[in-house]
Design goal:
Number of strands: 9
Radius of gyration: 34 Å
CATH topology of the largest domain: Immunoglobulin-like
Distance between the termini: 91 Å
Order of helices and strands: HHHHEEEEEEEEE
Shape: rod-shaped
CATH architecture of the largest domain: Sandwich
Helix content: 10-25%
Low-confidence stretches: none
Length: 204
């Protein structure tokens, strides 16, 4: 056949008779044009078609579900869907960020203890108010004063900032920077516990 209809209908000007080319956008217009001509001249369809090399050579193609690419893509899709489902079903009701005050790095209190100030920003992802408690681990005997002594209550769907003062006896500090861990634990019906790593700065 030399009707040139496949070339005429191609929107990018590709001559598909010389094989698949970079300019082809796989619109399929050449397939339809060729099949219409074949119907008119009484020839079998499929002169231009989507086919694998094995199909063109007459070799049997493996079943769809046994093809390596299908198995690989299916596995990736299953893992991605499982990860998304796990993330949606295990969303923590709280989010926590702890910022150490830089000015000053530490305060020497009148009783001789060393104090550090922190700003805690907590996000309550639940639909109701959530009372929480603040604890500190990592330094023995550390005392925590949160929110100027007032109860910490997280309002729903908002970022709630509040101040925390951590006091430690100097003899409990073994280095200038001591790793500590803040623990935010909710009370009431919704139980949640979050931890955040920070540092306690003491004198040299």
């Amino acid at each position: 056949m030399d009707c040139h209809l496949c070339v005429g209908v191609c929107p990018t000007g590709v001559d598909i008779r010389t094989g698949l080319q970079e300019g082809c956008i796989t619109c399929g217009l050449c397939l339809d044009a060729c099949d219409s001509v074949m119907d008119k001249v009484g020839k079998p369809r499929g002169l231009i078609r989507y086919a694998s090399e094995n199909e063109i050579l007459g070799q049997p193609s493996p079943p769809f579900f046994k093809r390596p690419r299908v198995l690989a893509y299916g596995t990736i899709l299953l893992l991605a869907a499982s990860g998304i489902l796990y993330g949606l079903t295990h969303i923590a009701p709280l989010q926590l960020t702890v910022l150490h005050e830089r000015q000053p790095l530490f305060i020497r209190m009148s009783d001789g203890s060393i104090a550090n100030k922190y700003t805690i920003k907590a996000v309550n992802k639940t639909g109701g108010n959530l009372p929480v408690q603040i604890k500190v681990e990592g330094v023995e005997g550390a005392k925590v004063e949160a929110n100027d002594g007032a109860p910490v209550l997280l309002t729903p769907e908002k970022v709630v900032p509040f101040r925390v003062l951590v006091r430690v006896r100097p003899e409990q500090l073994k280095a200038v920077d001591t790793p500590i861990r803040f623990i935010l634990e909710s009370e009431g019906e919704t139980r949640a516990k979050l931890e955040y790593e920070s540092v306690f700065v003491g004198p040299d």
